[in-house]
Design a protein that fits this description.
Blueprint (H helix, E strand, L loop, with lengths): L1 E10 L2 E11 L4 E5 L6 H9 L6 E6 L3 E3 L11 H6 L5 H13 L16 H12 L6 E5 L7 H13 L3 E5 L3 H7 L2 E6 L2 E5 L3 H39 L2 H23 L22 E10 L3 E9 L3 E5 L6 H9 L5 E6 L5 E4 L12 H6 L7 H10 L16 H14 L4 E5 L7 H13 L3 E5 L3 H7 L2 E6 L2 E5 L2 H6 L10 H42 L5 H38 L1
Parallel strand pairs: 3-7, 3-8, 5-6, 6-7, 12-16, 12-17, 14-15, 15-16
Antiparallel strand pairs: 1-2, 1-4, 8-9, 10-11, 10-13, 17-18
Length: 578
């Protein structure tokens, strides 16, 4: 069990927790929610004993294990690292399953751990936790370095774990599937919601509405008392003076209660509005026969104007490599060609476009040099940098704040092709939702690499999967879900499968119909150009102009026909296999 008794945590100029009392029973499955900087990670470290600068008492019974405890390694292999705690035959059998499930190929099991990346080491930590005899595990953003199959494998590990856990995560789908109690740090208090994720969101909204209603009623009563007191004082008689004094005491009591009342702070909606980009040509990006070392082979695809494309695949399959090849940060074989008037911006998951010594204000003013200071500060406020926060140096920012600042800079450049590599890493739940809203409203084209399944489904309309070093287009949510390593299928699986396929077929047929309409309009334009060209006579300048126009229309028609052909092949595939 974990018990907090009148716990307070204060940093200079900031109060994280104020007299919090809370009990978490054995076996409870808890999510810890809150904005970036609200104290979530600090609280986990206090529970595990790594952070001691707090007032009050924190008591734990049983063994609690924290994901971030294992930060350095002696020279050994992943297999040896796991066997250190796999002290029963049952656990030893589980070692292989966990290593595979978290995306480690067998040839990596005997590599020195110190040759692994930071993300790979984090995945190793996650797996080892489930081999220890822990009564409680504390996981801080465990999905950040997992691919979608790895996230589903972790869900199953948690499902079968006999103890309790506390999870910090911004991944809505993950929280929905793993947690039954939600503790939100808000206004230096912890608000307790014992329910599933969707009910938590609804209850949270209800709490805010009821609080607003209560506040409005109290303010109305305060105004009423003020008017009564004023009236009594105005009449000036002894009896009325006594009444006025009585009402004044009542008013002071109400004002005191109102001032000391702890309220649930409503989110200030971050209107992350993306400036409308200039229009681009119909084909935004064309990639042909791209090859890079032994990682990628024969990668070919096109992105059309306004399309939002997700690139999926296991960790290490080459998703980020494709983006770096597109950005020119890596050199491979093949052709990468951007279309007419395409302005592309890349946002790397490791945030490379910030100067550590600059303030937030300076970083944004580089892109807003002709804007007055108050406009720059207002724009910074949309991304959560309010008041004096705009004068923080980049090196002072948290991982989530750095990611948000980098995104804010990229959006100011008005790209009509936005390429994002794991944009939600280190973001809080509120900011992920704001990002999703912005990307849905974004008028340009998008290429997205993300492990956030809900973000992918809600934003993207086309999906590519890396399989055997090649990029294969998959055309429905169902096809993505096939890649998940889910051990059990629900009784309604077949029905849901057929339903999704039917919906996808319908979408494909509607898209073909739309493209046929575009083809017909372009053919009519082409016919008019050809008639005009026939009658142009000796006007060679006009003839050249019309010839170029004719070729352009023919190319557009060809691209539409190729897209129709791809959709028809997908329909044929579904009809043959399902």
């Amino acid at each position: 069990m974990i018990a907090l008794n009148n716990v307070s945590i204060h940093f200079p100029g900031k109060e994280l927790l104020n007299n919090v009392t809370l009990n978490i029973a054995d076996g409870e499955r808890v999510a810890l929610i809150g904005k970036n900087g609200s104290g979530k990670t600090t609280l986990l470290k206090a529970i595990i004993g790594e952070f001691k600068d707090y007032a009050g008492q924190i008591n734990t019974t049983g063994k609690a294990v924290y994901l971030d405890q294992y930060r350095t390694f002696n020279s050994r292999t992943p297999y040896e690292y796991y066997l250190e705690v796999a002290d029963t035959p049952e656990k030893q059998r589980l070692v292989r399953s966990i290593l595979k499930g978290l995306g480690f190929a067998e040839e990596d099991w005997h590599r020195d751990i110190n040759t692994f990346s930071g993300g790979e080491k984090t995945r190793l930590h996650i797996g080892r936790i489930f081999l220890e005899d822990a009564d409680f595990i504390l996981l801080d953003e465990p999905t950040n370095f997992l691919d979608i199959p790895g996230i589903h494998f972790l869900k199953n590990l948690l499902k079968n774990f006999r103890g309790g856990y506390i999870i910090i995560s911004h991944d809505r789908s993950f929280l929905r599937d793993t947690c039954e109690r939600f503790l939100e740090i808000n206004n230096s208090k912890i608000w307790d919601f014992r329910m599933n994720f969707d009910n938590y969101l609804r209850e949270r909204e209800t709490l805010i509405l009821n609080q607003k209603r209560s506040m409005k009623n109290k303010q109305r009563e305060i105004e009423r008392l003020k008017k009564i007191i004023e009236r009594y004082r105005k009449w000036g008689r002894e009896k009325f003076i006594k009444q006025a004094k009585s009402k004044e005491k009542m008013l002071q009591r109400m004002l005191g209660e109102l001032q000391s009342e702890v309220t649930f702070e409503e989110d200030v909606e971050k209107e992350v509005s993306i400036p409308i980009p200039e229009p681009s040509g119909y084909v935004v990006l064309s990639v042909d026969n791209l090859k890079f070392l032994d990682i990628l082979e024969d990668v070919s695809f096109k992105v059309y104007t306004g399309e939002k494309v997700a690139i999926l695949g296991p960790n290490g399959s080459g998703k980020s490599t494709i983006l770096k090849l597109l950005a020119g940060r890596l050199k491979g074989e093949g052709v990468v060609e951007f279309g007419h008037n395409v302005k592309v911006e890349f946002l790397d998951q490791f945030v490379e476009n910030l100067d550590e010594e600059n303030t937030v204000f300076e970083e944004l003013s580089d892109e807003m040099s002709f804007q007055p200071d108050y406009i720059i500060r207002a724009y910074a406020g949309k991304f959560g940098f309010k008041g004096e926060d705009v004068f923080k140096n980049v090196f002072e920012l948290s991982g989530g704040e750095r990611q948000i600042l980098a995104l804010a800079k990229v959006l100011l450049k008005r790209p009509n092709l936005l390429v994002l590599d794991e944009p939600t890493n280190h973001m809080d739940l509120e900011t992920v939702e704001a990002l999703e809203k912005a990307l849905k409203e974004y008028k340009g084209s998008l290429i997205l690499v993300s492990h956030d399944e809900e973000l992918i489904k809600n934003v993207c309309s086309r999906y590519y999967m890396i399989k055997n070093r090649r990029l294969v287009e998959v055309s429905s949510d169902f096809e993505i879900s096939v890649e998940k390593k889910v051990e059990k299928k629900s009784p309604n699986f077949e029905y849901e499968q057929k339903k999704k396929i039917k919906n996808q077929l319908k979408k494909a047929k509607e898209e073909i119909k739309k493209l046929r309409g575009m083809e017909e309009k372009l053919l009519k334009k082409l016919e008019l150009v050809e008639i005009e060209l026939f009658g142009v006579g000796a006007d060679y300048v006009k003839a050249m102009e019309l010839t170029e126009k004719k070729e352009s229309l023919e190319n557009e028609i060809m691209e539409i026909l190729e897209k129709i052909e791809t959709l028809e092949e997908e329909i044929k595939y579904f009809q043959q296999h399902f």
